[in-house]
Recover the amino acids of this structure.
């Protein structure tokens, strides 16, 4: 996610996150729960809702997050790797 889009996230926004806990870095639906303004990129906490793993809150790197609905016109090495 571009920094401008990342810093525009607000609590309640829906996103998709490449789950670092999954070997294939699958995309998992999530909801922004905390936004802490910071110089550069904000600190953002996201609650993941993956089937079978329950809910958990993570603070991912912005480059592992996509808007939901996803826009595949941007280059994402994680998405390209899944082809």
């Amino acid at each position: 996610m571009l920094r401008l889009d990342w810093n525009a996230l607000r609590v309640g926004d829906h996103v998709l996150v490449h789950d670092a806990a999954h070997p294939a870095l699958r995309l998992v639906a999530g909801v922004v729960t905390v936004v802490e303004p910071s110089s550069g990129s904000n600190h953002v906490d996201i609650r993941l809702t993956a089937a079978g793993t329950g809910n958990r809150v993570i603070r991912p790197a912005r480059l592992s997050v996509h808007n939901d609905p996803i826009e595949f016109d941007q280059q994402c090495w994680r998405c390209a790797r899944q082809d």
